[in-house]
Amino acid sequence: MAMDPAARRWSLVAAGACALPLLRLLPPALAAVLAGVGLLGAVSAFRRPWPSWLRLVMTLALAAAVLFAFDFRFGRDTGCALLMAMLMLKCGETAHLRDGRSLVGFGLFAAFAAFLQDQGPITLVLAAPAALLALAASQRLAESEAGLEAPPRVGPRLRQALLAVAIALPLALAAFWLFPRLPSPLWGVPENALAKTGIDDRMSPGEWIDLLADDSPAFRVRFFGAPPPSGQMYWRGPVLWQFDGRTWTRWDGMSYLEPPQVDYADAAVRYEITQEPTERRFMFALDLPESVPEGARLGVDLSPIAARPIRSLTRYTLESAPPVRFEPELRRATRDMALRLPAEFNPRTVAMARAWREEGLDDAAIVRRALEMYRRDFSYTLAAPPLGRDSVDEFLFDTRAGFCEHYSSSFAVLMRAAGIPTRVVTGYVGGYRNPFGDYWLVRQSEAHAWNEVWLAGRGWTRVDPTAAVAPERILNTVNDLGDGGGGGGMRPMLDIGDWLRRGWNDLVLGFDAARQSLLLQPFGIERASGWQVGLAFAAVAGLILLASLLLMLRERAPPGDPVLVAWRRFTRRFARTPVPKPAHEPALAWAWRAAEALPADAARIRSLTARFVAARYAPAQSEAGTDAALVRDLRRFRLSSRP
């Protein structure tokens, strides 16, 4: 059946609205191309539809463009982009009602697919109105199929769609709160999140330049007491031991070692971290963690490690305190790894460190000598020049400008060459206190690397060579690194936006299986199991469905309604014709079929059906006495001839 212009407009508007949530997540150039194709298709649908050969060519071209944009990698993001390409092409093919139904259904699927990549509030704000428009478009398509005229106003149609959503909302909320949850989502973490994981388990010169320019959140922190000074907020992550001459990596052979002895100070701090997904097991803790949450463990270097990769927003509580002595007795295996350097790399650095040792300097004096050298002769910049094979030599003797990767790497090589056990600690430093939510935001741009040296009598001691560079000599070329007050006059708006995002995380994204198990505490169940939560969902869903059924029964006409009795008698006359009326089929849709099958009675069938629909569903608009006339005419109806 051909689609009328009103139904076509509704379908195209709904498809465009459904495309927005996913379009904003695609690469900008690809999104612009796909949006242009969809707009051209919508315009051509009202003029001259695209021929089949052109649709084929455009399909192949868009598929190639999507694969090129994603470097020919097949995955979820590529699949979502291909889905969007097919939706935009479908906008140019809206000749029949089945095309409209396909377009609207396809659009709804695309809107929901956006949540596979981003579950933030912006996606919801875009997807919810789009779903409402799709419901309204589906209603118009059904009316078009029944031969009804399009109403002149848009408001009543949107109100009907909103009413349908309101009816389904209680069951949807019950499913969200009570349907048993998996420990992690089936689809894992979006691929774009994998490309921006933040701290990794490896570090090479210049590798963090994009990370240090990224202001997206790494995690948020809520302290249960007074927080430490921001300058002392070193958030400990992966500890790097092995060096191949250019890249630092973790020590894979340390898993069999027990955590070392640590004497903590009395000033313990308790806090809660809400960490963004990373697809890695690294957790972050304020130096040094005393305890970790259930299921996690502390490595031999006291880096916190989760039981499984962090694929969704994760909340955990920790306690930390400054160390008085951190592993005062160094094990042989640990000492050997903390002194190891590759042969025939960075000879000038090794020679300088050995010369310092030959001067008779002790370990602490060598550390001070290195920090004084950095403070006097070096500068901080994110625009560090690339380094070659002997990266530490080139940094210390040639370029003398870089950021935390360069300083921590070169300092570790210097100390090891001088015989001082040293390792590189990666994580974050500082943070910004959001006054609207009384929590601290730690961003990816606050990623940092520092060192720990082992000194006799003290154990592992934190040394930050980057901090030795004078602040007035720092050359920031991207943004003010770690400047929580950035944003100028927009700072309050940014704070409110992040506070709202945190609330969304707490209420929606952070509602996991652990929090769900606490829902039944008011009923005396401390930690509900999966079957108890499922039973609660079944009970609530049953009550909602029962209430809906009772409301529907109240809306039905009483058995003695003369109009309904006459209508049922009227439709029974067609029981032995080719077009008997099923109970589930709408009156107007059945009348359309009956009129086509029985042309001799077509006019009377359509007229009586239209009058019945008006009497049943628009009684306020019916004139006095029309019901009695309708009942009389329905009873008098006879088929012109038996088919």
UniProtKB/TrEMBL annotation:
Transglutaminase-like domain: residues covered = 396-467
**Key words of the record:** Membrane, Transmembrane, Transmembrane helix
Tagged with keyword Transmembrane: yes
Q: Where are the transmembrane segments?
A: 55-74, 161-179, 531-553
The UniProt entry, under SMART domains, shows: TGc (SM00460)
Establish whether keyword Membrane is in the entry.
Answer: yes
What's the protein name? DUF3488 domain-containing transglutaminase family protein
Report the source organism.
Coralloluteibacterium stylophorae
Top-down, what is the taxonomic lineage of the species of origin? Bacteria, Pseudomonadati, Pseudomonadota, Gammaproteobacteria, Lysobacterales
